[in-house]
Design goal:
By secondary structure, the chain is mostly beta strands. A 6-stranded mixed β-sheet has the order 29-28-34-33-32-31, with no helix packed on it. Strands 1, 2, 39, 40 and 41 form a 5-stranded antiparallel β-sheet that branches. A hairpin with a 5-residue loop joins strand 3 and strand 4. The longest helix is centred in the middle third of the chain and has 8 residues. The radius of gyration is 23 Å and the shape is globular.
Length: about 450
């Protein structure tokens, strides 16, 4: 494993381009585009204000920078650095901005969700979509980029509109059987749209592309409901994480529950492997010490190393009792993600913040638990193989694969607390992001 030097960053805005050639990062109002392999600066753009959101176009030729406070989006071209485009929403304001799948239209959501404005970079034409709903996930594109679903709210009722992305014509418009729609997400094959209700109502609805209701699923009533969902890459499974600390898996044939995964504080099954992170003091032979010590030696001397031990079951995990009388209690399944080969599902139960649970999807049972010393900040699967990267807000990155588990110290001076990470599309490197800095970690093919 090799690590680049640290580079400045603000707002956790570091993104690999879809074609994998470039890495864009933001420092206040500057956008820096680097070559992925050499990290040499290819372009440097200056925006009108502090950047709050960046996004690559699907063909990696353009990059948009949104400045929500000013209601402005600036678009930059990598091929023609002199060309640029500025979209000013004026008094309407701006709360969200994203690319359409063709990389030539920009969708801006105005303040108070009054409308979505669709701007064309090619024809400079403008279209409007009225009544978008203010919810966590209100716009969803199919993976092939042909259709867009938009959640809408009119006359105190929820609706879905499905548009054809090539000409923004309305394909279907239908009302949904939700009290207060919270999010929508297409299955990867683009055939089914999952629509779920607010956490006060456990309800998930599955609609076909032509607006037919295929199925409704409710696990229980009168308690906090759905917290997170994830489709498997094959579209065969829908995983639903709930506030009751369980994940329920629905199948794509009958849309009925095939199993549920519980997340208890004690792991009792002898077939489950529990990797526990333990600290070890750095061992340095005193004869080899030179003063002043070299940079690499100094950083390893004063940073605590860690490794994984395999714990004997039963194992008791650190459990936090949530504060029940506060909004958004820290409880239930807050994160879940399928591996790209459909074989594994990684989950995090917010009541047990230091553990990652890895489930075998083929056998529908718990496979591995990683118990960390600090709370899990983020995890992400390698896009090419079943390999999970985890960060916990310290200067280490953790990798799990079916072959085993490894903890790697990032050899940096000073305080580098990794709170987010993202894989390169090749799976050969990843960007490790802290609040003020980022670095790139390069992996050899043979590693765990």
């Amino acid at each position: 494993m090799n690590f680049s030097e640290l580079f400045k960053l603000s707002g956790l805005l570091g993104r690999f381009s879809p074609d994998g050639r470039c890495l864009a990062s933001c420092v206040q109002y500057r956008l820096v585009v680097r070559d992925v392999n050499t990290l040499r600066i290819l372009q440097l753009y200056t925006c009108l204000d502090q950047i709050q959101h960046i996004e690559w176009s699907s063909d990696s030729l353009f990059i948009l920078c949104a400045m929500y406070k000013r209601g402005i989006v600036q678009v930059w071209s990598l091929e023609q650095p002199d060309w640029h485009c500025k979209i000013d929403e004026g008094s309407a304001g701006l709360v969200a901005s994203c690319w359409s799948p063709d990389g030539r239209h920009i969708l801006n959501t105005t303040e108070f969700h009054l409308r979505i404005t669709v701007w064309s970079l090619c024809t400079k034409s403008v279209s409007y979509i009225k009544y978008p709903k203010a919810c966590q996930q209100g716009i969803a594109f199919t993976k092939d980029g042909r259709y867009m679903a938009v959640a809408e709210r009119r006359d105190c009722k929820d609706f879905i509109s499905i548009f054809v992305c090539s000409d923004w014509q309305l394909l279907r418009h239908f009302d949904t059987e939700t009290q207060d729609l919270f999010g929508i997400e297409w299955a990867p094959n683009g055939c089914v749209l999952a629509v779920w209700d607010t956490c006060l109502e456990y309800k998930i609805l599955l609609y076909s592309l032509d607006g037919r209701l295929l199925s409704t699923y409710r696990a229980y009533e009168w308690s906090l409901g759905i917290k997170s969902i994830a489709w498997s890459p094959s579209s065969q499974f829908l995983a639903i994480g709930s506030y009751d600390e369980k994940v329920r898996i629905l199948n794509h044939v009958t849309w009925k529950k095939i199993t549920e995964f519980e997340h208890p504080a004690t792991i009792a099954n002898a077939k489950t492997i529990v990797y526990k992170e333990v600290e070890k003091s750095p061992s340095v032979e005193t004869e080899r010490l030179s003063f002043p010590p070299t940079r690499a030696l100094a950083s390893s001397l004063f940073s605590t190393q860690s490794k994984y031990d395999i714990s004997q079951v039963p194992v008791s995990l650190q459990y936090i009792k949530p504060v029940a009388d506060r909004a958004n209690p820290k409880m239930g399944i807050g994160m879940l993600a399928f591996s790209p080969d459909n074989c594994f599902l990684a989950t995090k139960n917010d009541n047990i913040p230091n553990a990652v649970w890895i489930w075998d999807v083929q056998k529908l049972k718990l496979f591995v638990v990683l118990e960390q010393l600090c709370a899990i900040q983020s995890f992400q699967w390698d896009p090419r193989q079943p390999r999970l990267a985890v960060c916990t807000g310290n200067s280490k990155v953790y990798l799990w694969s079916p072959a085993g588990c490894v903890s790697v110290q990032v050899p940096m001076e000073g305080d580098f607390q990794i709170v987010s990470l993202s894989w390169h599309s090749s799976g050969d490197s990843m960007a490790l992001l802290s609040k003020d800095n980022f670095c790139v970690c390069y992996l050899e093919r043979e590693e765990v």
